[in-house]
Amino acid sequence: MINLPTFNRIPGAIAVDLDGTLLNSRAQLSERNRMAIKGCVARGIPVVIATSRPIRTLRRLVGDDLTNFCSLVVMNGTAALAAPPLSGAFREVLPKGVARGIVDLLAGMGPEVRVTVEIEGWEFGANWAADAETLWQFNAATPDMVMSVDEALTRNPSRIATSRGGSDVSDLAAEVSRRYGDIVSVVPANGMTFLNILSIRASKSGALQHLLLSREIAMDDVLAFGDDIPDIDLLASCGTAVSMANAVPEVLSLCRYSTTSNDDDGVAVVLERVLAISGQKQ
Q1: CB-based contacts of 147: which residues, under 8 Å, 6+ apart?
Q2: Across the chain, what does the average pLDDT equal?
Q3: CATH code of the domain in which 272 resides
Q4: Residue after which a domain boundary falls, among 199, 219, 238
Q5: Distance (Å, rounded) from C-alpha 76 to C-alpha 65?
Q6: DSSP readout, 40-99?
Q7: What is the C-alpha to C-alpha distance for residues 33 and 262, in angstroms, rounded to an integer?
């Protein structure tokens, strides 16, 4: 059921997830969504893309125009980079020694377990190999950006991502949580086929708040969009939380408002209401 918010004032900032939210089911940005985001930026409203993806993938997905003019919260809030009118940068690393223990634990749970150790959002270590074309297609990466897991572990990594070829990873989540649950957050995605493992101090909402401090914008004044488990902390922390029609049940039950699906330009449907108010205020 669609329940769109109404606006009597312009939000202080906008935070929007990518996959399943701003991007459609083919991981593409529609022209309607693009123009809505650009319209908000042009009116001086800070727009923050808050995603589980690393920063290296964003230009290919949303283009230079949005990547250069939107602030970025990436890798589940382990790193952030502001764009005007916001300022500042942020990175939260995994506690020393913990990343090695988690990687060794995952490696012991089967040779099919795929592990990616993210550093700052550009370079990463992996226990899997791919040719240059595949690396670019799926990771927006070139071979010089990839290193061994052992080397990545020496570089103060921010996040460990793990999967098992599209299969359920509930057992991996349970074991990492059992051993390290007081130190790290284990955040599932894509129907429990993918795990994000990060410092317990890192979150999308925390990274967003760090960027907003530069303009003294309160989280209660943020309009946020999301669809999946990794978005819950962000949506719960923002004043106006909007779920996509395609959101998981946990997100649908959390949000007061809902919009059309990511394949029906649900973000633009709401932002066009913001832009209408903005036009009246000019």
Answers
A1: 123, 124, 125
A2: 94
A3: 3.40.50.1000
A4: 199
A5: 22
A6: HHHTT--EEEE-SS-GGGHHHHHHHHHHHHSEEEEGGGTEEE--TTS--EEE-PPPTTHH
A7: 10
Same domain, 71 and 110: no
Angle at 69 between CA 201 and CA 157, to 5 degrees: 30
* Claim: this prediction has a pTM higher than 0.85: yes
Residue 47's pLDDT band (boundaries 50, 70, 90)? very high
CA distance linking residue 70 with residue 134, whole number of Å: 28
My answer on whether 68 and 85 are in the same domain is yes
Domain residues for the domain of 77 are 13-91+203-281
Residue-level pLDDT at 144: 84
| Domain identity same for 231 and 186 | no
Q: Which of 199, 222, 248 is the last residue of a domain?
A: 199
**Is 243 a domain residue?**
yes
Q: Which residue has the higher pLDDT, 60 or 135?
A: 60
* pLDDT recorded at residue 87: 96
The CA–CA distances, whole Å, from 246 to 2, 22, 112, 240, 252 equal: 11, 12, 30, 18, 9
Amino acid at 141: A
| Concatenated DSSP letters of 111-130 | TT-EEEEESSSS-EEESS--
| pLDDT at residue 32 in the model | 98
pLDDT of residue 282: 39
